[in-house]
Amino acid sequence: MSKRIACFGDNCVDSYGETGQIFPGGNPVNVAAYVRRLGERASYVGPVGKDANGKFLLNALGSRGVDVSHVRVREGSTAVTHIRIVNGERTFSGYDEGVMADYRPSEEEIGFIAEHDLAVTGLWGHSESALEAIRQRGVPTAYDASEAPFSETARTALPHTTVFFLSDDKSGEDEIREKLRELRALGPEIVVATRGSRGSIAYDGREFYAAGIVPCEVVDTMGAGDSYIAGFLVSRLRGLPLRDCMKAGAENAAVTIGYSGAWEPDGA
């Protein structure tokens, strides 16, 4: 039977100013889409506004077969991230949080999330406070701290996270290993750092594991980290060894890097 992953927290529309293109976005939204691309079931839980962008997000997720039965449609605007592409790299030029600003998972939503095989959220989702209740119900969790693994928000998540992800392409080898040791001591079973062109490194409390990237043409790096997370987590749920999970993450990221936006051009 296929696995079922709940992705909850932030969503947004990624708006590319130069081209006028918009794409679905937000860490949990992207992970849900990539989980579906890999053949597993996914749900997204979070709020959208009663505007065109909210309808766009719901339609995009629905077209991928993501369960959106627990999306809240609220008065107000859907979050928008404004993006420019400079030399193939994404540059954020603004963020309008909209109805995401005061979102917190409800008890009913937590109950729904706990029906899944795995629950995934991240730094911008205002959802870290729900992780403890989800773990208490026996559901493993994953959290993406992006570039702020020691922030107050991430520290709330750390004790209740099974797999903890961060992004760090600047630290040297000794420094990144020390960071992973410190973070794992705060609660997670596994800590994984994605490092851009330097691949990824993981620590399970006993051993460090390193994995490289999959060479590919870089069109747009938007969604690469979320793709890695989805590939890693799907492989972990399938019972693969840690090194294979890291390899699967890199392979999935390479697919996303090859097109503009976080989703395939036909994904909207």
For CATH, the homologous superfamily is named as: Ribokinase
**What is the fold-level CATH name, i.e. the topology?**
UDP-N-acetylmuramoyl-L-alanine:D-glutamate ligase
- List SSEs in N-to-C order: EEEHEHEEEHEHEHEHEEEHH
> Could you give the order of strands across the largest sheet?
5-4-1-8-9-10-11-12-13
As a whole number of angstroms, the C-alpha radius of gyration is 17 Å
Could you give the count of β-strands? 13
This entry's quaternary arrangement is single chain
Distance between the termini: 28 Å
What's the CATH class label?
Alpha Beta
Instruction: Summarize the main sheet.
Output: 9 strands, mixed
Structurally, the number of domains stands at: 1
Second CATH tier, the architecture: 3-Layer(aba) Sandwich
Low-pLDDT windows of residues: none
The assigned structural class equals alpha/beta
Percentage of residues assigned to helices: 25-40%
